[in-house]
Design a protein that fits this description.
With about 325 residues, the protein is α/β, with parallel strands linked by helices. Helices cover about 30% and strands about 20% of the residues. Helix 2 crosses helix 3.
Length: about 325
């Protein structure tokens, strides 16, 4: 569109809310004649609310840059993140700099399904309705899984590397806090996506990983992200081994199954692409009759010379 990209860390203070939260706004945006927010509206990975990730969150945490994000997440431990997003976002709207926002809603395949221009007046209330629609379209895994294999994680996939509500993990990486979602007992993540540039926020969600993933972590960006989000548990490095085979052998012994043949495996490319799921044979009957589930083919689990899995999703992409 020929627009310049201006990315700076400078902020302007807009004063404090009635709760004592100092609100910040990006200095370049504050200097502009008018501001239009563009943001996806979707569920947040750490809490449930009528407002989660979207226009109000970008008005508050997005415009606040690092200084604001760090303070907002600290206040959220006392007040709740939804409350902080709403009150800080209202203060930014009161600056009269924002004329509105463009809400982007994605379907279950993460394709843009709806665009809605929302004026500043009534933006908060309209976003509640848009989020309800977005939640109704979000995909989930179809069944409980003992060991979920995830090929890749990264910031380009989810703010927490893996969507915590897909893999059912809480803010402190606690197991299965969302009762309406399938139970995932253990998670094995194989590698970082190249586009995350080493940011491994969310690795603490996993139970086991590979040494190659650990070697690829950029600790500077990962630590900064953990600090701004206020979630240090999400960068704890889990048990890690040289090969996929060793990772799976170790984690299989932790799921509580006496007979290893009873372990129920699921395998996905990442938490953004859930249109294809590989499952072990003992899960096939549990999902085959479900609406919108189609059993495409049977595959053999194959290994390379290093003891690493050959991903069926990479094979499918090559086809």
């Amino acid at each position: 569109m020929g627009c310049p990209i201006v990315s700076r860390g400078d902020v302007v203070s807009l004063g404090t809310t009635s709760d004592g939260i100092e609100v910040f706004m990006d200095a370049s945006a504050f200097a502009a004649d008018a501001v239009m927010i563009v943001s996806r509206v979707k569920w947040h990975t750490t809490f449930d609310g009528a407002i989660e990730s979207g226009l109000m969150k970008m008005l508050s945490i997005g415009f606040g840059k690092f200084a604001g994000a760090q303070k907002y997440h600290s206040h959220a431990q006392r007040l709740g993140l939804e409350h902080v997003i709403r009150t800080a976002g209202r203060r930014v709207l009161a600056s009269a700099k924002v004329i509105g926002g463009l809400a982007i809603v994605e379907d279950a395949h993460h394709q843009t399904a709806r665009l809605e221009a929302v004026p500043a007046e009534g933006l908060e209330q309209r976003e509640e309705a848009i989020l309800a629609l977005a939640k109704s379209w979000m995909p989930t895994l179809p069944c409980d899984i003992d060991v979920l294999i995830v090929d890749e994680m990264g910031k380009n996939i989810s703010g927490t590397g893996m969507d915590a509500k897909v893999v059912n993990r809480g803010p402190a990486s606690e197991y299965n806090p969302w009762p309406s979602l399938p139970s995932i007992r253990r998670i094995f993540v194989r590698d970082l996506h190249p586009d995350t540039h080493g940011n491994a926020l969310g690795i603490g969600i996993a139970d086991v990983t590979t040494e190659r993933l650990v070697r690829g972590i950029d600790w500077k960006s990962t630590r900064v992200n953990a600090s701004s989000s206020g979630l240090p548990s999400r960068i704890r490095v889990p048990a890690h081994f040289p090969s996929d085979r060793e990772c799976l052998a170790w984690v299989a012994g932790t799921v509580g199954r006496i007979d290893v043949e009873e372990i129920r495996y699921g395998w996905i490319a990442n938490t953004l692409e859930l249109d294809r799921l590989a499952v072990s044979r003992n899960l096939r009957s549990a999902i085959a009759d479900r609406p919108h589930v189609h059993v495409a083919e049977e595959i053999d689990v194959t290994w390379d010379a290093s003891g690493d899995l050959v991903s069926p999703f990479q094979m499918a992409a090559r086809k």
